[in-house]
Amino acid sequence: MAAGYFTVTNTGGTDAKLTSVTSSFAGEITMHTTKNDQMSGVTAFTVPAGGKLTLSLGGNHLMLMDLKRKPRVGDKVSLELHFAKGSPIDVRVPVKPATYRPEG
Ligand SMILES: [Cu+2]
Asked: InterPro entries, alphabetically (predicted)?
C-alpha cells in the first residue's frame, strides 16, 4: 500500500470535482480525507475555482492498493485524474519515502 500526495490547481472559473483516480500502477485507488487523526473514504474531492486541492500527509490523500510493483524512491508513477466534467488529466508523481502507520 502507498499513499499519494500532490496538488491540483484549478485555473477555471468553476469548482472542479475530482471523482476518481486510476493508474496502471495500482489495482485500486481510493480517496481519503483525515479528520481528527481518523481517515475516511470520500467519493470526490472538490478543487475550488481559482484555487487548489492539496493532497498531503494528515489531510486529503490517495490510498493506492494492490500495487503492481514495489515502488522505489525516485520512481515516477503516472496517475490519471478523472473529473466530473471534462477529460481526464495525467500527472506524474515522484515516489518519496514515507512512513505509514496503520490505524488500530
Ligand atoms: Cu488513507
From this structure: LpqE-like, Lxx211020-like, PCuAC_sf
- Whether 21 is in a domain gets the answer yes
For cell 470535482, name the residue: 17
Asked if the structure places residue 41 within a domain, the reply is yes
Q: Which domain holds residue 67?
A: 2-94
91 CA → ligand 1 middle, Å: 20
Instruction: Assign residue 66 the CATH number of its domain.
Output: 2.60.40.1890
90 Cα: distance to centroid of ligand 1 (angstroms): 21
User: Can you spell out the DSSP letters for 42-99?
Assistant: ES-EEE-TTSEEE--TTSSEEEEEEESS---TT-EEEEEEEESSS--EEEEEE-----
Q: How many whole angstroms from 99 Cα to the centroid of ligand 1?
A: 12
